[in-house]
Amino acid sequence: MEDYFVQLKHITKTFPGIVANDDVSIDIKKGEIYALLGENGAGKSTLMSILFGLYEPDGGQIFIKGKEVSITSPLKANKLNIGMVHQHFKLVSDQTIAENIILGAEPMKKKWGFIKSIDIDRANKEVAELSKRYNLEVNPTDIIKDIPVSTRQRVEILKMLYRNAELLIFDEPTAVLAPQEINSLLEIIKSLRDNGKTIILITHKLDEIKQVADRCAILCKGKLIDILDVKKASTQQMANLMVGREIELEEVREEVKKGKVVLEVENLSYKDKDKVSKISDVSFKIYEGEVLSIAGVSGNGQVEIADAICNMIRATSGTIKLNGKSIDHMNIRERAEAGIAYIPEDRQNVGLILDFPLYENLILKEYFREPYCSKHGILNFNEFKKQSNELIENFDIRSGKGCETTVRSMSGGNQQKAIVAREIALNSSLIIFVQPTRGLDVGAIDNIHNKINELRKQGKAILLISLELDEIMALSDTILVLYSGKVQTIEDAKNLSKNQVGEYMMGVHNNA
Amino acid sequence: MNSIINDSMAFALPLFIIAIGGIYCEGSGVINLALEGLLGVGAFFGGLSFAMISTQLGTTTNSMIYLSLIFSMIGGGLFAILYALLAIRFKANQVISGVVINMLSVSLTAFLANQLNYSLFGQASNKFMLAVFPRVTVPFLNKVPVIGAFFNETYVFEYIIIAIALIMWFVLYKTPYGMSVRACGDNPQAVATAGRDVNKIRFSAVIISGIMAGIGGMCFAYSISTNFSPSIYVGYGYLAIAAYIFGNYKIGQTLLACLIFGFARTFGYLIVQALALPSTYSDLALTFPYIVTLVLLIFFSKNFTAPKGLGEVYEKSKR
Amino acid sequence: MLKKMNIFQRIFYAFCGEGKARKLRTSIFCILASMVFGGIILLLLGKNPIVAYKSLLQGAGILPKIKYPGRKNQLTDILNLLDYTTPMVFASLAVAVALKCGLFNICVSGTMIFTGILATTLVGYSNLDPFVARILVVIIGIVGGGLLGALIGWLKYRFNMNEVIVSIMLNYIINYIASFVINSRYADPISRESVEIGQNARLTLMNFEAMGLKMNISLLFPFAILVVFLIDFLMKRTKLGFELKSVGTSPLASKYAGMNVKRTMILSMVISGALAGLAGVAYYLGTYGSIQPRVLPALGFDAIAVALLGFITPIGCFFASILVMIFQCGTSYLSSRLGVLREIASLITSILLLFSACAVYFNQKADSYHNKFLMEDKSDE
Fold first, then answer.
1. Do A373 and A379 meet the contact criterion of CB atoms below 8 Å apart?
2. Residue A369 DSSP class
3. Neighbouring chains of B at 3+ CB pairs within 8 Å?
4. Whole-angstrom Cα distance, residue C287 to residue C284?
5. pLDDT greater than 50 at residue B318
6. CB distance from A227 to chain B under 8 Å?
7. Which residues of C touch A308 (CB under 8 A)?
8. Could you tell me where the DSSP H helices lie in chain C?
9. Domain extents for chain A?
């Protein structure tokens, strides 16, 4: 009989409208790295949230070390030595690392024999020891908001270790990291296993699984498809199972002739309201029919460049020219009119007004001009709907009640389609995409990638900002790598390997 | 000089204790515009208890005064439960429900004060008369220049408030509960994953703000008018909000802000007195603390950083 | 689905559940619920709530009274009701317009005093021709209120100030300064209020004699109806209205769409202020004719309840105004007939406000019933 740490049996969970987990059973051995593979929306995170006590399953049983348990809250999960490193870190930004780690399990001391208070010195010491033992370097007294993403992740791991977690669940831990940081995280995960911990790794990246995992369960649309021994399975095999159909890993790229310069950015700099420099001296050009990508670890100034071009933030210095004319003096609307379309990073809070119907969102950038609005400022909703229905048809936007649907009730993929449709309809010469595929399923990602390729063929200038290196490698003509707001390199995509880009992203590439 | 310091402190300290309640409440992520109403209901309960006991016994003693203080805490806390239900349980808009609570407080206390005066004491009045709060002089310390004034003929409640404030500071910064309160205002998810109940912590923080507002309101009733009447609603709750906004949600800095308001108020009256202006000018003096608040807000609002999760409704199912 | 619910759930669902005219039904639910609460209070006081509510309606002119004093009848009562309602319509619209743009204008009371004292001192005691004087008063209301609104909007945007605190501070500052002005120059020694303004500037025709009756006719009431429709059109059909709603729902997305968020916010405060200013002149130079020093008009705060009860729509505000004013106008008749305190009316209004603030929750709750019972229904089949 094998020594199982966790056994999930026939887990089923439904949300209104979807079955997130459909009769899923997996067993995880003590001391192994077990990967959960699947696309976005396959039900991996839901399954793990059930194990961590965030959701209650509609049916099925959970066994920990052979005993049946019901996990109704994260607190209970903690008591069963289960810890989870979430995709979105759950840290208190204005408290120290040590305070974050001890939250909920504070060491106490007594003053004068009766007044109990938190023993912050002991906490600092314990955290320092823990970080040494597991090789997770942090300074216990640093404030969370001052430390980089990779350190925050370490804090999350330490939080679990501090609670003596034996099973650690990692939810897409590499999504926010640069390639080199990914490697060191994977090393940490391996060393945790070697220290006797059991690991569950949720991911949709095959190479990571290849690198560290022992076994791998593949989920698709809520169902368990297969469980593979990673050493014996091929990458292609796993990929096919994950998507549920044959996929081509390689795509052929057509050559497109570059035309005139569309966007010219010179010495662009931006300091935020605390006078911290976010981008400094960035210069580049984008030509017609060119896709220029900005690669970089999250928070290194990529989004600020896009925002500065559209004037969502005001550049501190530098000039921006569109089609040969300076647009520095223009406001957001004037720039959009001059020919900038922008698909923003935060589609729900920036790109759309979720509580407005689809037809108002689809005309959000043109509502003020004829035929949508008369000279006297009276709106014509018939025109709104006419144009909307056309876009809905052309871009295959699916929604419950057609153009009357409230955008909030639409799926993420269709929300993004709506934004892309609106922005492409503006027929601008420059189109900026920021993280266009984040959180979308494979079908929707394909759709967006095809749109970008199509626009390139039409001779549009495209600025693509993405954290997904694979996406950048697949779509770009030119790659600009940004590190702490400074340009590390601008190079023809053909001359760069993924690894080189990774080194630039970390700011460690030797130019020699 | 002595009276300036005394008057200012007698105003600043109740304001301070109300603001501390606000820091707990907003620090946990719940907007609290209801302080004004909470302090009124607190004072109402205190005033009512005092009036009932003193009519019952026919005398007034100091212990009854302290008892009324406790009743005002209970009253403020109970009324705060109503606000917590609205803001947390019913997920109503926190700004609007805060103002709603204030209006309800005004009409409820006005109604009850009239009704109870009539049915309990057989009087047609909306006031509860109070006794004069005892004052003490600390020997030796009162001889120290400038600061000494604070130890000369001081209301006892000022010392009570300082003691409570110290305890509240300790709880907020040195105990697991306080740490969770502050964490709830920044990132409620962090608290939930640490195994604590966000909504319970917020609920308790709102109630604490009610208890603190109750004390503050009662002390205002004692120091300013020696009675409870609906004229207790003159915006001191809102001044307290302004105070902790200046104080950047920190207890120490908030005290400073309260002192500024206290002195502004005293100086307003002093100017009218010193210039020997007719009594109608006291209306102008009354505007002084509000104007100071506005001007300070103009200068400092840019730098304020409210708790990140302020006003954000926490729902379990949301990840 | 319905058979699974208990009687209370069924009633609740019928009012707040999915379906036609949901907002209206939810509002009616809030009204009835607060009346039940008020009824319980009345019972506790030993009064018959049905008689009480009936005399409320009688006092407001909705039902005929048993007897009338000379030269008064139900018509004069209704005209009185409309006269009292007029400022409330403007005030609730002021709250609604700001709320639509995501701003909470709690300075309606202060604005009312501001335009009230301005118009009283500038025009109220003059010998101008009635037509000119009245037009001037209305203009002062609109311009004065608009300027004050602009100030609040500007302070919010320029200095990142919380508009609620700014509004409250302004309320008190205006209140005390107005009281200073009244007490030092315009106080009536007997009433201790400001001296009553001349009939030439009064926006209500007082004791107008016709058909053998003495009536108080609000000249602004027709204008108020017009304004309701204007604001409704503005919000629903115009570019400005679209921008207001958009900024109110998502300032970030509105900025991204190229709207001038700052200008839109200030503009909404200007419109809101102008409406509040109109409420001020309608109140102090119409219904009352004089100003009580040191008292912020409760109407400015009640307007928040009215706007919420009217689901922040202009037409809704109009009907909610009439409803709430029925409560307030009927109170004196109620208190004289049943011997209860006048304060009961504002207490019931506050409870109504409490329920209105929870309207969104009621709808969510009804939806959750809907989901719960609907799902059970499906699994039964």
1. yes
2. S
3. A, C
4. 6
5. no
6. no
7. none
8. 7-16, 22-44, 49-59, 74-100, 108-119, 130-159, 163-181, 221-237, 239-249, 251-256, 261-282, 299-309, 314-338, 343-357, 359-380
9. 4-243, 261-505
Q: Element (H or E) spanning B244, and its range?
A: helix B236-246
Task: Assess A342–C contact: CB distance below 8 Å, yes or no.
Answer: yes
For chain C positions 352-381, those within 8 Å of chain B (CB to CB) are 353-354, 357-358, 360-361, 364
Interface of A with C in 433-472 (CB under 8 A): none
Dihedral pair phi/psi, residue B56, rounded to 5°: -60, -50
Burial of B55 (0-12, 13-18, 19+ CB in 10 A): exposed
Q: Quick count: other Cβ atoms within 10 Å of Cβ C338?
A: 18
Using CB atoms, list chains with 3+ pairs below 8 Å to chain A.
B, C
CA B111, CA B90: separation in Å to the nearest integer? 26
ipTM reported for the complex, 2 dp: 0.83
* Residue C88 contacts residue C303 (beta carbons within 8 Å): yes
Helix (H, G, I), strand (E, B) or coil at A368: coil
**Would you call C11 an interface residue with chain B, using a CB distance cutoff of 8 Å?**
no
CB C36: neighbour CB atoms within 10 A?
A: 11
- Nearest in space to A394 (alpha carbons), one of A431, A369, A420, A371: A420
Give per-residue pLDDT as tens, B210-269.
999 999 999 988 887 788 888 888 888 888 988 888 888 899 989 998 998 888 888 888
The pTM (predicted TM-score) of the whole model is: 0.84
* CB-based contacts of A411, cutoff 8 Å, min separation 6: A398
> Is residue A130 packed enough to be buried (19+ CB in 10 Å), middle (13-18) or exposed (0-12)?
middle
Choose which CATH entry (1.20.1260.10, 2.40.10.220, 3.40.50.300, 3.30.70.20) describes domain A4-243: 3.40.50.300
Cβ distance A106 to B179 less than 8 Å, yes or no, reads yes
Q: Which amino acid type is present at position C287?
A: T
The residue in chain A having the minimum alpha-carbon distance to the alpha carbon of residue B309 is: A92
> Which of these, C301, C12, C361, lies nearest to B92 by C-alpha position?
C361
* C-beta separation of A72 from A53 below 8 A: yes
Using the Cβ of A338 and the Cβ atoms of chain C, whether some distance falls under 8 Å is answered with: no
More confident: C72 or A61: A61
Q: List the single residue in B99, B111, B234 with the smallest CB-CB distance to C347.
A: B111
Query: Is B99 in Cβ contact with C160 (below 8 Å)?
Result: no
Fold of A261-505: Rossmann fold (3.40.50)
Query: Strand pairing partners for A481?
Result: A295, A489
- Comparing CB atoms, the residue among C240, C246, C371 nearest residue A377 is C240
d(CA A312, CA A344): 10
Bridge-partner residues for A303, per DSSP? none
Q: What is the distance between the alpha carbons of residues A145 and A351, in angstroms, rounded to a whole number?
A: 26
Q: Which of residues 269-328 of A touch C (CB under 8 A)?
A: 310, 312
- Domains in chain B with CATH codes: 2-128+148-303 (1.10.3470)
Contact between A74 and B194 using a beta-carbon 8 Å cutoff? yes
Q: What angle do CA A448, A452, A457 make, to 5 degrees?
A: 145
Please tell me which residue of chain C has the smallest CA distance to A312: C256
pLDDT tens digits along B133-156: 888 887 777 777 777 777 777 888
Q: Which residues have CB under 8 Å from A113's CB, separation 6+?
A: none
Could B192 and A100 be called an inter-chain contact, meaning their C-beta atoms sit closer than 8 Å? no
Q: What's CA A76's distance to the chain center, in Å?
A: 29
Rounded to 5 degrees, φ, ψ at C364 are -60, -45
Domains and CATH numbers, chain C: 1-47+340-381 (no CATH), 69-338 (1.10.3470)
Residue A311 and residue A332 in contact, taking contact as beta carbons nearer than 8 Å: yes
